[in-house]
Amino acid sequence: MKNRYIIILILTFISLVGMGQQMALQSQYMVNKFTINPAFAGTQKGIPIHLGVRRQWSAIKEAPVTQYLSANLALGGGLGAGATLYNEVSGPTRRTGLGLSAAYQFSLAKSGDNDHQLSLGLSGILSQHVLDKKKLETYLPDDPTIIAAYDNQLLPDVNFGAYYHNSDKYFLALSVMNLIQTKTDINNITNKVKNNFVRNYYLMAAYNVEVNKDFIVQPNVMVQAIEALPMQVDINTRLLLQGKYWVGLSYRLQDAIVGMFGMKFNSLEFSYSYDMTMSNIKTYSNGSHEIHLIYRLEKQNGLKSRKSGNNFF
Known about the structure:
Elements: H1 2-19, E1 47-55, E2 65-76, E3 79-90, E4 93-111, E5 114-131, H2 144-148, E6 152-166, E7 170-177, E8 200-207, E9 209-212, E10 215-226, E11 232-241, E12 245-252, E13 256-265, E14 268-277, E15 288-297
Antiparallel strand pairs: 1-2, 1-15, 2-3, 3-4, 4-5, 5-6, 6-7, 7-8, 8-10, 9-10, 10-11, 11-12, 12-13, 13-14, 14-15
C-alpha cells in the first residue's frame, strides 16, 4: 500500500511536468547559464566544462534526479558553440538528450570601458523519453493502458536565446525553450487531447557592484514563465571574494530558500547548493542538493576566447 502512494505522488509530479514545466529545475543556473540560454555559448574565458548533479526532494523515494555535462567555447569572429548531454530520472520515467548550440556575438556600441554587446543563440535538442513499466503498480493486472504505452520516444525541439551585457557590469538575458512544442504521447492513447512540450520562457538579469578589487556583490533575478503554470521568480544575491570564493542566497517565491557557495582552484571550480523547501511538500522532503564541477581549459591554438574580466558573468 505504501508503494502505491509513492507511485501516485510520483505520477502526480510527472503530470504537472507534462502540463507545464517539462524542464529540469536548477538552483545554480547562474553558475552555468548556458544550460538555459544558448546565447551564452562562447562568452566566457577559455572552454568551461560543466558537470552537474541535482537530487530533488532527498527524502522522497524516486524523486527527480538530474545529471548533465556541458561545454562551450568561442570560435573567433564572434561565433560560439557548445553541447550539452543530460539525463533526468523521475520515478518510472527517464529523459536523456543531446543539445548542440551555436551563438553569434557582436558589439552594439563601445565607449571607453563601456562595451555593449549582444549575443543571439540557437540550439537543437534531441531527447529520448523512456517509460519503465516495471515500476508502475496498477489496480488491475495487465492494465491495457500501461501495456499499450510506448516504452520510449525520440523527440526533437529547438531553443532560442538572446544575451545583452555591458562589459562585466550588468546583463539581461532572455531564452525560449521548446520552440517547436513537439507532441509527446507516452500513453499511446487515441484521443483528442494535445500533449505538447509547451514553451518555457526565462528572463535573467544581474548587476555587479564592485566594492573593491577583491569584493563584488551581484544581485540577480530570474523569472520563468510557463504555459499552464504560475510564474516562478527567483531573487538571488552572490558575494565574490578575491575572484576565488563566493557565497549566495536565493529565494524562490513560495517554494524554497537556497543557500550556496563555490570556490576556485586554478582551472577547477566547485559549487554546492541546498534548497530548503517552503511549500507543502516540505512535510515529506528533506530539501534538495545540487553539486557542480567546472574544469576550465585554457585557450587553444585556433580558438579565440571572449574577453571577460572575472568570469562572474
